[in-house]
Fold these 3 entries.
Entry 1:
Amino acid sequence: MQLKVSDLSVFYGSAVALSNVNMDVHEGKITCVIGPNGAGKTTLLNTVAGVVKQREGRIVVSEIDVTPMSISERVKLGIVLCPERRRLFPGLSVEENVILGAYLRKNKDEIKKDLEYVYTLFPVLKERRKQQAGTLSGGEQQMAAIARSIMSRPNLLMLDEPSLGLSPLMRERIFNAIVELNRSRGTTILLVEQDASDALAVSEYAYVLEGGHIAVHGETEYISRNPEVRRAYLGL
């Protein structure tokens, strides 16, 4: 699924959150958005998902204008957001949380296949499928949140800060799973990350969002060599 955002502006009251944002996310690719806290990264994802309404601009996926569509209508098209800070139901089991991602789907056989797929992607979730989600570590909860999103059968999966607060080892496992999902299923992925080095390492194209507007964009090799990006986000 290809995503095209055109002249997108979002306001919270009189405060500008996004200003005239344009971006293209190519089908079957991993694209990242990096930038400082408060730059508008989460707002961008929430607007594409339909959680936040834009004041101006259009959102088009695979030539379908989804700008007027509801959240559920967008999910039916395969536009799926894995939100920041996981937002699991701690009192439900791991498997119950994961299967919630399939709430709009009807084919039980396909749901079962996808459940086995996410357990292959995250074996620890299968081991702990009967545990309450609230008993998992932060990294395991992030795995469960991503697994839940995969159960929605995304054509475009948007991930908001998947490595937030995780150990280096757990971050590596999360990013390996993201790459594997993209490779094995061809899922288009839009990744928002505070850790620019990790995001650039797994992405093919990158946007730098600052103060609600796109400051620079390009292939990740180009962005990684950009002196300002290296100084501001890579510590080089």
Entry 2:
Amino acid sequence: MSKLTYKELLDAGVHFGHLTSKWNPKMAPYIFMEKGGIHIIDLNKTLACIETAGQAAKNIVKSGRRILFVATKKQAQEVVSDIAKELRMPYATERWLGGMLTNFATVKKSIKKMQNIDKMMKDEAFTNLAKRERLMLSREKDKLERVLGGIADMNKLPAALFVVDVRREHIAVKEAQKLGIPVLGLVDTNSNPDDADFPIPGNDDAYNSVSMIVKAFATYIEEGLQERKVAREKENLEKEAAKKAAVDAEGEEAAEEKAAE
């Protein structure tokens, strides 16, 4: 796996924090210096934190569990949704629907409703509905898809959340904390790193910075998924070998019994 370098982070502007007047004192361990009224993030700490959070994510997906990506700020929406789709992980990038975790049973009903409308719209009977009724159903489907489309195949709670800007996504973070779901998150100098179980200090406002961090994080998930695939293939081969050995043993036993007669 290709590792990020200090220079790559520097070139992407990951080190740029917020104005010193807007800082959260709990971010002090991750700040290198102050320059021109701006806090500069210690990129060595960023590299170490990406490794720690990445390994945690890798272990989660290796066990067959899933990570929910959360990023509703404009500069993060596209890259996060694209990467989550590639990884086949659930995501929330339009807006966080209150209770998405803590009231998941109700959310699942809304997902089911969205799927039923989609199925209905593909049916011939849909064309026989009044134009106004068709329009209302289409609008409702679009509205549900914007909010729930990224979690349409999430049939149970995620094992962890990956959050871009824990300060902005405080509702999602609080819900995860309430349920004991670990949070892996990108934290800027105006954020509280304690809100993430695995904080990654970095610029969460610039597209290049967010893109680099998310893509680096994704490589750990890809590696975990690949290792899980290899392990499952090995397990299936071992089962087939054991089954064949059992069949061969039965055949030999039957042949011996016949010979004995």
Entry 3:
Amino acid sequence: MQVIEKLRDLALNRKLAAVSAIMVVFTVAASSYAVLELNQNGSSGQGLIVYSADAYVQESNTMLNGFHNTTGYPVAPAIGAGSYSAARSIGQGAPADIFISVAQGALDRSYLLSRYSGWAVAFASDQLVLAYSSATISNAPAKSVIAMFSQANASNSSTAYYAAFSNLTSGAVKVGIANPSDDPAGLRGWLALEIAGYLYDRGNVGYFVNATLRNNASVSSLNAALLVEPLEAGYIQFLFIYKSAAIANGLGFISLPASINQGEPGMSSFYNKFTYTLPTGTVRGSPIFLYATVLANSSRSPESYAFLGYLVNNTNILSGFGLSPLQPCILFSSVQDPPEIAALVSEGHLAYGGPL
């Protein structure tokens, strides 16, 4: 209960700081982008509007800034939210031209409704890590967990990994796992625990999941970004988050085996064995890709496709954020390719990866 009360206090402090933070964002954005005022309906007269998975707003803004400097097209700062939350907002009418998601499922018609395009381009990959802060290191049980994972990573011993995950889920430490229905980082955190049970407890996918729930070892929030401050304050000791986000927030992190971190494109069929059920249906595991799509019925289609072209031609920029650029990028499509996409395929910038 004390942890929950402290988290509520932190949430209140974040809300009080939000007004000044918003002013700072728009002040900085005005110097970096051709940002246009929004009308009463929330749409811009000319600027490109991008919704981005919240863990990748910095990367999205970097690409938007480069696109604006190269082409002169006006753009607005990316709007960040959990991929599923963002998709619901877009489907419900929020003005948007491009959607950058870290979950293929969020690109489905069931979320985007009339804005569903039927295709998306994977342009970079990431991986899941267990982040920690300086406050974590001063916590004796948490310090022991770090040491156990270090030993397991060095020895690649199943017994050592079993011990590490057992201590992580024992309730002696608190682990941040975002709400899977809003943020795919949370879904992938639970999938990581499923895979760990499968690998280290003789195929028992529920072993570490059930231990986490039974021991009240997890703390949730709308998205992983909201759990960074509690992690830094020591109210939780670990956080399932993407490697790029851990780096961006200056956090320490435990690297997980490729079989668990969901960051290896070549292990797609293995990840696909594991599932998590959301209110909207069952989601299968998959490599952590960052996807971009031009939303259907966009009033700025030429600029949107121009940005996509810039993105797939400049993915190398993203390696500075801890991401692994994909070259060529991967096209997932369940519709006839728009001419702009067909051109990128013929030029070798995109390779087909299957249906969306």
